[in-house]
Amino acid sequence: MDNSTINSAPVFVVGDGKVTVALEQNWYSGPSLVLPDGKVMLSASRSLNSNYELAIRRFNPDGSTDTSFANNGLLSISPNSGSFSPSKMVLQANGQVLLLGSSPASMGSAILRINADGTIDNAFGSSGLAQLGYSPYSYGSASDLVQLSNGKILIAGSSGGASTDFNIKRLNADGSIDNSFGTSGQSTIADSNGNDYVSSLRVQADGKILIAGYSYNYSNYTRTDSIVRLSADGVIDTSFGNAGTVLLPASSSGSSIRIAIQSDGKIVAASSGSSGHRTSLASSD
Question: Rounded to whole angstroms, how far apart are CA atoms 198 and 141?
């Protein structure tokens, strides 16, 4: 992926006590990332001729542009040299940054990796882009990403088809599929309650994997939130809940369920619905 084409948008303006991002027409703010040294990365993208244009700016801790990043502080990828719209940014231990998002070139979800200096890491995937195989034309999409301590990458999403199912994939550090995980690099979990959509992905201290999401039954318009636990190698952990799944009743409508792991190993799950907010606790033992 070539990042040699630099445009002037979006325009980032340093203000008094804050950094204001002035976006031109059709630009939308994306995920941001605070780095350990206090620097901040902001992203924005826009749809242009059925493709995406991406811009990432890095700021110093005082709010000034970090001119050591990319081209005078701005990484810009035009539709002519690549196409990507990010939904999440994750910092790797070596300073590289992973961006999970959508790429029409990959027919769905993909991961883009950027070096610490703002250049595209062409050693990752194919010219910096690892395709994940979630096709929007079959209602599939990637929802969350976790960087593992060994350099491998976990991605959770919904696999498409006649009905959508929970799906998790593991990549090697170079962006290739890790075939030692699950079946040929992925695990798919079907819920009989309806179409399944992943919202959140977390990894416990023991390496076990938690996937949170919801199932929606279009025949009776009901929704059920659930948490599924897998072993570190992608096999359903039948010791968790009922054969590996904990079901959490939910209202007929609501937002995506999110989970966090407390220091004592318990799992906090939260979502909101038409009847209000709900928080549930479940033990990971």
Answer: 9
| One-letter identity of residue 83 | S
User: Measured between alpha carbons, how far apart are the two ends of the chain, in Å?
Assistant: 44
Alpha-carbon distance of 245 to 258, in angstroms, equals 16
pLDDT digits (tens, 9 = 90+) for 209-238: 999 988 877 788 777 888 999 999 999 999
pLDDT single digits (tens) 137-155: 445 578 899 999 999 999 9
Q: In a 10 Å sphere around its CB, with 0-12 CB exposed, 13-18 middle and 19+ buried, how is residue 204 labelled? A: middle
Within its chain, how far is the Cα of 180 from the centroid?
22
* Sign of the alpha-carbon dihedral angle for 248, 189, 170, 237: positive
Residue 212: which of 226, 223, 222 has the closest Cα? 226
Cross-strand bridge partners of residue 267: 261, 282
Q: Which residues of 105-125 are buried (b: 16+ CB within 10 A; e: fewer)?
A: bbbbbbbbbbbbebebbeebb
For the chain, what percentages of helix, strand and coil (3-state, to nearest 5) are there? 0, 50, 45
Which strand (E) or helix (H) includes residue 27? strand 27-34
Neighbours of 218 (CB within 10 A): 9
